[in-house]
Write a structure and sequence with these properties.
Blueprint: H1 2-22, H2 37-48, H3 63-70, H4 75-82
Length: 104
């Protein structure tokens, strides 16, 4: 009768020791490091067959801002969806010219 309790006690002590060794001291998960802007810009240029005249400036946003701007219930997207179906633009995302005439 004593053997099962001994096994359980040893397992609890081992698991607590493992937990103490692997626990983060920071209290939360660290965000992954972002790639440098020039690396991302070159990838975008390669994917879209475009050239940047200058590198874009990165903007830091809070998690709540990212949720608000990406939310389908935001004001801009609600306005778009309430107007009915729209035709997707085929223009350049950087200068709004037609894709065939854009020099970027």
């Amino acid at each position: 009768m004593r053997t099962p309790f001994t096994i359980i006690a040893v397992l609890i002590v081992a698991l607590l020791g493992l937990w103490a060794l692997t626990e983060d001291d920071e209290g939360g998960a660290a965000a992954p490091a972002a790639a440098p802007v020039d690396v991302i810009a070159h990838r975008v240029e390669a994917l879209r067959s475009l050239r940047f005249t200058r590198l874009p400036e990165p903007v830091t946003v809070t998690p709540q801002q990212a949720v608000d701007e990406g939310s389908p219930t935001s004001t801009a997207s609600t306005r778009r969806s309430s107007a009915g179906p729209t035709r997707r633009s085929t223009g350049c995302w950087a200068c709004s010219r037609p894709a065939m005439t854009c020099a970027r």
